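Lab notes, practical 5.
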Amino acid sequence: MTQVQKLEKDCAEGRIKGTKRLYRRIKSLYRAPPEALQHILEALEKEGWAVCRCAHQADTCIARCIENAADPDDVRVITKDSDLIVYRAATSITLAVGNDWKTFAKEDLLGKLNLPTPDHLLLLCSLTTNDYTDGVPYYGLVSNADLIRSFELDDLSQLDDQAR
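Output from the prediction step:
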């Protein structure tokens, strides 16, 4: 039985509950072969794109590339990782949303969350579930934003990179 047939059978028998699980199963049906991905990355690099290849999280590598850029505002980050926006150097990121791409600006995000500074956003990400922590149990993004908003943060830059 092929993977597609197994998926069809599981759907027909009601074994897949919810669209999120269905999406994950469908997404796992096809993965581009590594050789195809390698060709795409090489083509992007020939066009002058900086491509980060990391064994694990690429966030810090990408943030370092932005910080080292001659004009960080000219850097466009295309990622599947939405928490990259919290890094001080990142001013915007472009994410896949459905079948489209959407660019999120840090200033817009700060406005939507009603956070006074980028340091508040950094603290919010640290408190909420992210790539590195499970976050504070029972609290979500909105509750954490309400809590963080009340903090007076002088400046988190005094903390070294290891402490952040």
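Observations recorded by the TA: The two ends are 49 Å apart (CA to CA). Residues 70-158 form one domain.
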